Every structure is written in C-alpha cells, then in structure tokens.
UniProtKB/TrEMBL annotation:
GO terms for molecular function: DNA binding; sigma factor activity. The keyword Transcription regulation applies. Residues 16-73 form the RNA polymerase sigma-70 region domain. The lineage of its organism: Bacteria, Pseudomonadati, Bacteroidota, Bacteroidia, Marinilabiliales. InterPro entries: RNA_pol_sigma-70-like, RNA_pol_sigma-70_dom, RNA_pol_sigma70_r2, RNA_pol_sigma70_r4_t2, RNA_pol_sigma_r2, RNA_pol_sigma_r3/r4-like, WH-like_DNA-bd_sf. This is RNA polymerase subunit sigma. Keywords: Sigma factor, Transcription, Transcription regulation. It comes from Marinifilum breve.
Length: 164
C-alpha cells in the first residue's frame, strides 16, 4: 500500500474511528483524543503494517490505547487512595486562611455525617471518578448519581456556610 493510499484510507475511516472511540470512552473529548492518538500511532508504525485490512489494524491500535489508558487511570486512583489513607491526619490543604488544616478536618467531619447514599457517590466524585463509573459501581442510573452528588453539595454548603 502506498503512502497516498494509506493516508486516503485513514481519512475515509475517520468517522468510523470516531464512532468506535466514542463507544469506548462515552465522552466526546476523550473520543477525539483517542482518534488522534490512534492515527498518530498508525503513521508512526506504518512500516509495520503488513495486513490487508487497515480498518482492523486501526481498531486494534485504538482498543489497545484505550485499555492502556484505562489501566493507567486505575493505577493512579489506587495510588491516590493509598496516599490519602496513609496521610489522612497529615493532609495540609492550602486555603486562604491560617486555619486551613482545621477547616479541612471540619469539612471532612461534615462529609462523614452525610447519609451513606449521598456520601459514597460524593466521595468517589471528589476522588476523580466520572459519573458513569460511579453509576456502574453503585449499580444505579447516572441521573440518580448526579442528583445525589448535587444533594450532597447542597447539604454541605448549608452546613459549612461559615466557611464561605
């Protein structure tokens, strides 16, 4: 396959790649990033392409990139959770006042007072999980998770009104 044919085929497959990327990520921006990364890898390793089916090769590249990124995110979350647990009493959050450590402890105390159905999704959201991931973990619809996080925010805002 010549370079021109290779480039034209990739351009013609662009929309299909975007659809597949969106199925993997469920996020428009992440899907576009994944497409761009896939095409970049394809161009970098064009010399290694020896199949007749470029579409299958691109899908394989995309799937592998997605899996590797997902595993990397999981490791980062595990590390962050481990660090948070190890440094629970040593956390020094920087606010605009000299009582920041005490403020953090007060906020965490109020967060722990939330009922379990609100507290767990809210904490997961603070840890960086996406709504979809929280919904899958809790086996609930995304709308329910969004509502619970909103309710948790509202309750905490009322309880911590002195801090604003």
């Amino acid at each position: 396959m010549t370079t021109i044919e290779f480039n034209n085929t990739i351009v013609n497959l662009e929309e299909q790649l975007r659809v597949y990327a969106y199925r993997l990520t469920n996020n428009r921006e992440d899907a576009l990033d994944l497409c761009q990364e896939t095409v970049l890898k394809a161009f970098m390793y064009k010399a290694k392409f020896s199949h007749n089916n470029l579409k299958a090769w691109l899908y394989t590249i995309m799937k592998n990139l997605f899996i590797n990124a997902y595993r990397k995110k999981l490791k980062q979350r595990e590390w962050m959770a481990h660090e948070t647990n190890n440094n629970l009493g040593k956390v020094n959050v920087s606010f605009d006042n000299p009582y920041s450590t005490q403020n953090y402890k007060d906020i965490m105390k109020e967060l722990d007072k939330l009922e379990e159905s609100l507290r767990t999704p809210f904490k997961m959201f603070l840890e960086g999980f996406k709504y979809r991931e929280i919904a899958e973990h809790a086996n609930l619809p995304i709308g329910t998770i969004k509502s619970r996080i909103f309710q948790g925010r509202k309750i905490l805002a009322e309880q911590l009104a002195d801090y604003s």
